[in-house]
Amino acid sequence: MATRQPDIMSEQLRQTTCPYCGVGCGVDISCNVSKRAVTLDTVKGTPEHPANYGRLCVKGTNLLETNDINGRLLHPTMAGQSVDWDTATDKIAEKITSTIAQYGADAVAFYVSGQLLTEDYYIANKLMKGYIGSANIDTNSRLCMSSAVAAYKRAFGEDVVPCDYTDLECTDLLVITGSNTAWAHPVLFQRIQRAKLKNPNMKVIVVDPRKTETCTIADFHLPLKPGSDVALFNGLLSYASQRGRIDRSAVETYAEGLDETLNSANALTLDDVAKACDLDISSIKAFFDAFCEASRALTFYSMGVNQSSAGVDKAQAIINCHLAMDLIAKDGCGPFSITGQPNAMGGREVGGLANMLAAHMDLENPEHISAVKTYWNAPVMPKGQGLKAVDLFNAIESGKVKFVWIMGTNPVVSMPNRGQVERALSKCDMVVVSDIVESNDTLNYAHIALPATGWSEKDGTVTNSERRISRQRGILPPPGNAKHDWQILCEVAGKMGFGKAFNFTHPSQIFCEYAGLTGYQNNGKRQLDLSALQALSEAQYNGLSPLQWPFQNVNNGVNTPTPNGDLMPKLISKRPFADKQFSTPSGKAKLIPVTYKAPLQITSDAYPFVANSGRARDQWHTMTRTGKAAKLLAHMPSAYVHINPSDTAKLGVESGDLVSLSSAVCKDAPVIYPVRTDTDMRKGEVFIPIHWSAQWGSHSKLGALYASAVDPISGQPELKHAAVAIAPVHFATYGKLFISSVLQSTDSSEIRPFDDDALKHVCDYWNKIPLERTDASADVSRSNAALSVLNVASNRGRRDFTQSLIPLLPQNAVLVQFHHHTYSVCLALMDNILCFAAFLGDEPEKATIAQAAACTENTWSVPNSWLASLLNTPISLDTQRNLLRGQVDDVFLNGDVVCSCFEVREKTITDAITAGCSTVASLGEQLKCGTNCGSCKPALSQFIDKYLVIETQSV
Questions:
Q1: DSSP-derived pairing of the beta strands 203-207 and 220-222
Q2: Half-sphere CA count of 101, side-chain side, radius 13 A
Q3: For 73-223, where are the E strands, in sequence order?
Q4: What's CA 851's distance to the chain center, in Å?
């Protein structure tokens, strides 16, 4: 009898790209590989990758913590029932075909995502525009950077970001506007920090309504009125003209429209700018002087500029200043729009927007239409632009669009006017959703759900914010029956009769076809030309190193062998427009007059507050990935509404109180968040992080507050400026329900799940926070349990609410209850193992966790970390007594987590500062905080500024 040979494991290094923001960081993964399995062991930044040079933020550092298959969609489903792939794709192909036959091609739509790889994007665009014959393919990138795209196209004739990351490091003046870079793009923020340390003369100016952690490196901060950016940059242009900073004769050699643009801008005086922006004249003048005196200046902008009903004009106003002062197409200069998603740029390149064709060609250009049709051998092409995101969902609601296929995005959460999006999807004849998760807000409306591959499984390319193409490599096999998005699309295309055009078997084939299209009939007209890569072999593609376009093929020579000996073309990157020749018919860039227009969602007596939104440091989009790692929720466990103290006083609320927000489009379904008093907010304005959805809270529906207001050119929604009303919300009972996801039977023979959904249903308000166990000695069978806490509120009194919970707890559990006159505690134990704990009170949790040290007894407000250490473990009678009394172990009274990597808390940091640590580096040496990913360094700087006491002695 043959004996089974043991697997031989080998340690290998695999390189890929981070799947989060648009920085495009290289990632090194240490793997153990055998013939039967691959395990991913550790993640580090790729030292040689030009985007990050070895750095990773806290999200990238914890990629493996979010990469398990718990919660994954593993099989196709129809009406919630598992089906095989043939059944699902037959139904989709049949529905698309019948819809076109009955209603026309424009009754079909795709809504895709910057999470897709370029190869996925390319196939989706080719199928929709070349074979279905509609331009109704739009993307969630419409929500983040379409205004920047439109402005670049207007100014340069092509969607080209004219800067790269090295410009951030060699500029004299960096203006960061509409971006909390410290949180949204931490790796780039660290590169800026380092550049400023190396060059003390480098100035950084932050333009933002909020004082964010990005301001920790700012020479000064302009807290302008939201939406007033056009007035500010028009004022800068006028000021530069009056100071003689603009060389008209030089500008006219490479740009047109200067006179008309200056005439428009010159209508603004400094007083006008100050009034429009709500800034003092001295601050404005200091900014204008710094910009005019800089020999190299770069403006770095993101969602605060783009997500506006005037987003294109805002970006154009920035571009106008750079063109007029010749601060473009040279080192350390330019208007730099930073993208938010890992492949938003790749989607732009392949034409994954409803108003684009492909390869930077235009739907309105008959020559371009003809070229793409010929290259694709397409039977039909669109007759014009398709429906942009907001218009698309309007058309679904009205019945014009009958079929929509949503890929890799969660529009019920991310789109404005959530109620309208939900109505639209509920009316649509067929909603298909391709995703990696089995549950999210959008999947609730899916007739067919398709399991797609995710990071570490997907195989293809992405393009980052500086036009750098990197490989995202498939290291693990697809789990269950999951397939790559391009494979799913090709299967459907084949069943529609288009198999010959979609008979790809490897992503390298798709990439080569796309690369060839970028050069087809280009003849140097467009910067995007990857045709030198169109003949890559599969081995060359697999070994492709990061490459930035535009590039040139040096002497058509070859070098750089791949591991199997194939030779790669020798390509050298070059700066776009370095010769001041732009992609317009005249070859000149265009300055375009723009005028300040107030946001469309204006405040009123009924809705007096401006609601702003944005990212949290450790989270990503709608948290379907980052929400799986409790460590990433330690820094910000849940969403709060940040309000200036003067406004909280007028509202009669304080930190911890619950408030309801409503707007003109959200009157009947309140959006409820706890308050966080924030002195960094302007009066009359509030801020809410975007990530928490209805999966995370009963009333966490931020998008419902925003009207469907869009930029008239780009169609990008105004997601930074809703007009809202705020009112206190009162309940009879408030509390926390601590839950373990598994329960062990009394004979220790069975582990079964604990259903928290039933608990949610008896609450009038809840939000959920995953917890992380830190007790290394916990029983292995129990340590795998997911721990969580529900922050809850009920209209019932404490005793009645407790009674409503009891039937939902394990029948064989021992219940221990204690009702104090100010709080109640209910514990559920099985064999002395704590499986559930409820702490209830009559008032909200007013104290922040940082103040928890004062709340050591007779209170329901207990640190989450304390209960996380006790759940699913045997607890003694003394510990039970402490739980009933609310007597917290001292080790858990150190406040909020500041450093997620090493779980360093606020009180530990402030104690070190008061004891003498006066720099971020010294805190790192003593506590390790800031020494891994570095994402917490801006916060450490803020603590030093706040708590460091410098003693002075009078003489």
A1: parallel
A2: 7
A3: 77-78, 81-82, 108-112, 137-139, 173-177, 203-207, 220-222
A4: 31
Three-state SS at 350? helix
C-alpha distances (whole Å) from 39 to each of 42, 61, 275, 459 are 10, 17, 59, 17
For the record, the structure tokens of 203 come out as: 């100035």
For residues 568 and 369, give the distance between their C-alpha atoms in angstroms, rounded to a whole number. Answer: 32
Q: Provide the 10 A C-beta neighbour count for residue 739.
A: 26
Q: What share of the chain is helix, strand, coil (3-state, %, to 5)?
A: 35, 20, 45
| DSSP type of residue 72 | B
Cis peptide before 550 (omega within 30 of 0): yes
CB 214 within 8 A of CB 180: yes
d(CA 927, CA 921): 10
Q: Is 687 helix (H, G, I), strand (E, B) or coil?
A: strand
| CB atoms near residue 505 (< 10 Å) | 10
Q: Is 489 left (phi over 0), alpha (psi -120 to 50) or beta?
A: alpha
Spatial CB neighbours of 549, under 8 Å, sequence gap ≥ 6: 467, 469, 527, 528, 529, 530, 573
* Residues 410 and 621 sit within 8 Å (Cβ to Cβ): yes
Cα distance between residue 827 and residue 14, in whole Å: 47
Helix extents (H) in 531-644: 538-542
The HSE-up count of residue 153 (CA atoms within 13 Å, CB side) is 17
Please name the amino acid found at residue 418.
R
Q: Give me the helices (H) in 36-84, please.
A: 58-61
One-letter amino acid of 653: V
Rounded Cα distance between 646 and 658, Å, is 17
| Residues 352 and 121: beta-carbon distance below 8 Å | yes
Residue 21, SS3 per DSSP: coil
Residues 630, 865: Cα–Cα separation, whole Å? 11
User: What dihedral do alpha carbons 730, 735, 740, 742 form, nearest 10°?
Assistant: -60
Residue 657 confidence (pLDDT) above 60: yes
Across-strand partners of 659? 673, 728
* Claim: this prediction has a pTM higher than 0.70: yes
Residue 880: left if φ>0, alpha if ψ -120 to 50, beta else—which one?
alpha
The string of DSSP letters for 495-510 reads: IIIIGGGG---SHHHH
Q: Phi/psi class of residue 552: alpha, beta or left (left: φ > 0; alpha: ψ in -120 to 50)?
A: beta
Question: Which residue blocks in 201-280 are alpha helix, DSSP H?
Answer: 229-242, 248-251, 258-265, 270-277
CB distance 108 to 81 below 8 Å: no
Length of the chain: 955
855's tokens:
């709340």
What is the residue-averaged pLDDT of the chain?
Answer: 93
Q: Per-residue pLDDT tens for 342-374? A: 999 999 999 999 999 999 999 999 999 999 999
What is the SS3 assignment for 666? strand
955 pLDDT exceeds 50?
Answer: no
What is the token pair recorded at 693?
């959805």
**DSSP designation for 441:** T
Q: Please enumerate in sequence order all residues whose Cβ is within 8 A of that of 683, keeping only pairs 6 or more positions apart, or say none.
A: 644, 646, 647
Host H or E run for residue 155 = helix 146-156
Judge whether 173 and 297 are in contact, CB under 8 Å: yes
Q: 324 to each of 157, 178, 247, 284, 317, how far by Cα in Å? A: 17, 22, 8, 19, 11
SS3 label, residue 862:
coil
* Residues 604, 27: Cα–Cα separation, whole Å: 49
Q: State pLDDT tens for residues 480-512.
A: 999 999 999 999 999 999 999 999 999 999 999
Measuring CA to CA, how many Å separate 153 from each of 216, 259, 297, 726?
34, 20, 21, 40
Both structure tokens of 275: 């009034």
Distance of CA 719 to the CA centre of its chain: 14
Strand bridging mode 255-256 / 589-590 = parallel
| Residue 950 banded pLDDT, cuts 50, 70, 90 | low
d(CA 210, CA 5): 63
